[in-house]
Amino acid sequence: MSAKEYVFSCAIDNQESVVSFLVNTKKKYVIFGNGAKYNDNWDETESTIEVQNVIKQGGVQTVFFNKITGRLQQSYRSDYTGKIDMFNYTCTATQRLMP
User: Fold this and answer.
1) CA angle 24, 93, 25 (to 5 degrees)
2) What does the alpha-carbon distance between residue 64 and residue 49 come to, in Å, rounded to a whole number?
3) CATH architecture of the domain covering 6-94
4) So where are the chain's domains?
5) Cβ neighbours of residue 27 under 8 Å, at least 6 residues apart?
6) In the chain, what is the straight-line distance between the N-terminal and C-terminal CA atoms, in Å?
7) pTM exceeding the 0.85 threshold for the entire prediction
8) How far apart are CA 15 and CA 43, in angstroms?
9) pLDDT exceeds 60 at position 67
10) pLDDT-derived band of residue 71, with 50, 70 and 90 as boundaries?
11) Contact 53, 36 (CB under 8 A)
């Protein structure tokens, strides 16, 4: 797998919201939405990337991205309540507007 940065525009299912999604395969991190950096427990295969953001205040955010279909699932699990929130997105490749 080549090391490169990939940029996507992701629309949340059944809503009009669109967020950015950047993948850096060399440094093994993603930046999702409002700039949250996910770089814990990187797991990449030929068809998927799964990476987490362990939150100091208690909880884990996980991004699971299918590199073939462009489907992305984001989840958040609270250490305090045990509640899990999940969001599904459809992503399309794009390019940066500025370097």
Assistant:
1) 15
2) 6
3) Beta Barrel (2.40)
4) 6-94
5) 39
6) 23
7) yes
8) 29
9) yes
10) very high
11) yes
